[in-house]
Design brief:
5 strands, 38% helix, alpha+beta, 217 residues, binds flavin mononucleotide, NADH Oxidase
Length: 217
């Protein structure tokens, strides 16, 4: 295993940000480093310990460009919608300012997605082309912790990534491009690159009291 940054567990958990503008598009990322992060992700929980996860790692320039193009098309539609990050909480000046920054950062990423050195698509095999009608938490819960572990392991190694999902509009097209079987569902698209700058700070979140319910709602 390669060296990791000197971060406490709490520092790692509170500073693994969505990295977009600080992705270094010019510095190559060794495949071995990405494999190490995936190896760590495989320690995550999965329903019935099935481990039906797959991580599709895309380094080929043409494939990345094609995925980036799909992502950009989907982002353009999303950016016009009411639920786009930059359009939310307009009536709350403090939140609106943060949302605007997120929207701006997301828009930047949409423009460069195809140029990020490594694109990682964490997937889960449900055994069926259709998503289950019930207990989807069992399905997604068997890949989301692993994908987040991947991001944490990447952060600890000086790599930045961002959880993105807008490629989903073209999930089948991307699946065909990469030969992903129909029973295998894509959970996210994680652009991965070395990050520029020194470190990251914890983000300001909505207060704990608004979301914490002890012994009932
Ligand atoms: C389910 C999910 C979907 C997301 N989809 C996108 C996306 O498609 N594009 C993007 O730029 N960011 C996406 N994000 C990142 C969020 O915008 C980000 O987590 C949020 O603004 C908080 O910022 P932080 O991760 O830096 O703390 C997504 C996050 C989650 C959890």
């Amino acid at each position: 295993m390669s060296e990791t940054l000197n971060l406490t567990p709490d520092e790692l958990l509170t500073t693994t940000r969505s990295v977009r503008k600080r992705l270094d598009l010019d510095r190559p990322v060794p495949l071995e480093l990405v494999k190490e992060c995936v190896e760590i992700a495989l320690q995550s929980p999965s329903a019935s310990n099935r481990q039906h996860w797959h991580f599709v790692v895309v380094t080929d320039a043409e494939q990345r460009a094609t995925i980036g193009d799909y992502y950009g098309r989907s982002f353009a539609e999303y950016a016009e919608s009411k639920s786009a990050a930059g359009n939310l909480y307009a009536d709350d000046p403090e939140r609106a300012a943060v949302q605007e920054r997120v929207g701006d950062s997301a828009s930047y990423l949409a423009g460069v997605m195809g140029k990020v050195p490594v694109l990682v698509i964490p997937c889960i095999d449900s055994g069926s082309a259709e998503l289950p009608a019930a207990n989807q938490s069992g399905l997604w819960g068997s890949i989301v912790p692993a994908a987040w572990s991947y991001m944490l392991a990447a952060r600890a190694r000086g790599l930045g990534s961002a959880w993105t999902t807008l490629h989903q509009k073209f999930e089948r097209e991307i699946g065909e491009l990469l030969g992903i079987p129909e029973t295998v569902h894509q959970a996210a698209l994680l652009p991965t690159a070395y990050f520029t700058g020194e470190t990251f700070r914890p983000a300001k979140r909505q207060p704990l009291d608004e979301v914490l319910h002890v012994n009932g709602w």
